[in-house]
Structures are given as structure tokens and as C-alpha cells.
Amino acid sequence: MRTTTGWQVDGATGELRRTPLERRDLRPDDLAVRVDYCGVCHTDLHAVRGHDGAAGGPLVPGHEFTGVVTGTGSAVTRFSVGDPVAVGNIVDSCGDCPMCRAGQENFCHTFPTLTYGGTDRHDGSTTLGGYSREYVVREGFAYALPAGLDPAAAAPLLCAGVTVWEPLRSLDVGPGTRVAVAGLGGLGHLAVKFAVALGAETSVISRSADKADDARRLGAQGLVVSTDPDHVAAARDRFDVVIDTVSAPHDLAPYLRMVAMDGTLSLVGHLGSVSVEAMDLLVGRKKLSSAGSGGRPATAAMLAFCAEHAITADIELLASAQVNEALTRLGRTDVRYRFVLDMSDLDTGPAAR
């Protein structure tokens, strides 16, 4: 086994503590990756808050990270030591089901192996995430990090980015498409950047007008204030695609009414139970869809697109020792728009705070 250091949830306190971690020895198709930067996702916050102490097994969050290859298995052909790479929230799948054969490993029929909290398909161990200085991953689930992308600001592309990229591409967003993004957070700000770069007429839907400047800075042409009746009335049947990134439970009806005839509301934020009136779909033949993460081809295509269009996340970079502070602030939405942890302090750094 290989030994590294990371931030693991303390079952007694619910906080993350610095601790030694074990990684598997390299299998033939494995890479060892020195984790340099790891994004902080709402999923991490939910996992930490919901962790059931010792009964829940070890929990090391983190599933969007960039780093450098430090070792390769005997069968690796695509990477060499020193290559910059990126890893997302899926690190394995069955490889045989129709979804995997279609390049949609995120929809694997036997469920994909997640970067943390998953079950390793070979030895049954629990996967430990990217809040650590080293990660061992199958070559096929690592991606070359394109030159020119800042590795810290690129880390959130591997979860937040691909989560909004897949529905935008599957819905053929491009020139002539009217897109609205509901919620301007970690997912939403990347959805705006992608939609604009794809050539769509892009707007932001927000509860208040204080996001207007940010929306314009990101390239959006319009802002719909969802608490303003005049704004809502003017947006009726207006958008071909609405990407809903709001992470809390909410009423879908106002967003469906903004969808144009034959348009689509795609839910990528809150993935719990929803209630929909059939009439809100019937009037205008509107569609309700969802998406989650991305397959390997889409992830690679997204990274190439980001390199071509100089797209990265807007981040606040923190030392990894500030991980508990980051999660606390994320819980009160005190971030624009994604926290990223600098993992280099795990070499010599202090305890978490």
C-alpha cells in the first residue's frame, strides 16, 4: 500500500482532520496523481453533514481535482510521469452495459464508482477522495489537462463544469438558441460561460437584481429577477432552454412558464423529489429533463472546448488547512463561485481550521 495525507471526516466532531491515508499499489492500468488543487462541491458539504460517524466508514471528500502524474502502472499508454491531469467524480464503471458502451459511464447500469464514498470494483474498499495529496486512479478515468488552463481554476470543470456541459450539448444549444440559467453559483456561472461561448442568447434568472453586474461580466445579455412580477411576465414562453442549477428544493412552475414551446427545463441542481403540474408541461409541449456528471467523451470534449475558449471557473483559492472554513462558508453561500483547495500545504502544513 501507498501512504499519503488527507482530510478525513472525524466521526466524533463532524469536522475534517488531517490524517494519514492509504492508497492501493498501482495496478497495471493505474496512475498515481499528486493532487495539487481540489474543488469544494455542494456534494462534499452534504456528504460531510450526512456522515454517520464510524458506522458510515471513512469519508475523505473531493471529486474535482487537478495534479501531476507521479507514477504509472505497467500497462499505461496515454500518460507519463510529469503529465498534468484532471480527475472528476467518476473513477470506474462496468464498461459493458449499453450506457458505458455509449460513452455515458455516468449512467452505468451497475452505478459508476464514485471518487469518494464508492466501492472499488476489485477489492471492495471504500474510495477516498481528492482532499488528499495523492490519488490512484485508472488511466481511462483521468484526463489530460490542456495547456493554458490554470490548474486551480480548471479543477471545478471536472464536476460543476461537465454537469452543465452535457445538457447544453445534448439540447443542441448554439447560435439562435435562447438560454436562461437559474442560479448563479458554482454550476450556474459555468453554464453561463458555456452558453455564451456556444453562441446562445443567454440570460440569468436570479431572485434579486444584485447579480446583474456579474451576469454581464460573464457574458449574459439579460437578467430575469424571479421575484419581480413584471420580469416574470415578460419572460413567459421566452427561453428554448432553462438550466436550473438551484440546489435547494423549489417550485418548478415559474421556470416552466418561462420555457418556450417545445423547449426544455433541465434540472441539474436539486435532484430530490419534485412536484410538477401536467398543465405546465402540456401548454407549449414543454419538456422536463435532468442530467448528472458526464461520460468520458463529453468530459474530454468539454476540456478541449474550455482550452479553445479560455474558460475556467471563478474561484477563491484557499489552503487545504482551511477546509472546514470553506465548508462553513459554502453552507451559507458565501463564495463566488467555487472554493478550490491548494493541497500543497499537506506536505508540511498546519492542522485544519
Question: Any overview of this molecule?
Answer:
This protein is α/β, with parallel strands linked by helices. The protein has helices spanning 42-49, 98-101, 151-154, 160-170, 186-197, 212-217, 229-234, 253-258, 278-282, 296-309, 323-331, and strands spanning 2-9, 16-23, 30-40, 65-72, 84-87, 90-92, 113-114, 134-138, 142-144, 178-182, 201-206, 222-225, 239-244, 259-267, 287-290, 315-319, 338-342. The chain folds into two domains: 2-159 and 294-346, Medium-chain alcohol dehydrogenases, catalytic domain (Quinone Oxidoreductase, Chain A, domain 1, Alpha-Beta Complex), CATH 3.90.180; 161-290, Rossmann fold. The protein contains eleven helices and 17 strands. Helix 4 crosses helix 5 (186-197). The radius of gyration is 20 Å and the shape is globular. The model has no long low-confidence stretch (mean pLDDT 96).
Quick recap of the structure?
By secondary structure, this protein is of the alpha/beta class. The chain contains eleven helices and 17 strands. It has two domains: 2-159 and 294-346, Medium-chain alcohol dehydrogenases, catalytic domain (Quinone Oxidoreductase, Chain A, domain 1, Alpha-Beta Complex); 161-290, Rossmann fold (3-Layer(aba) Sandwich).
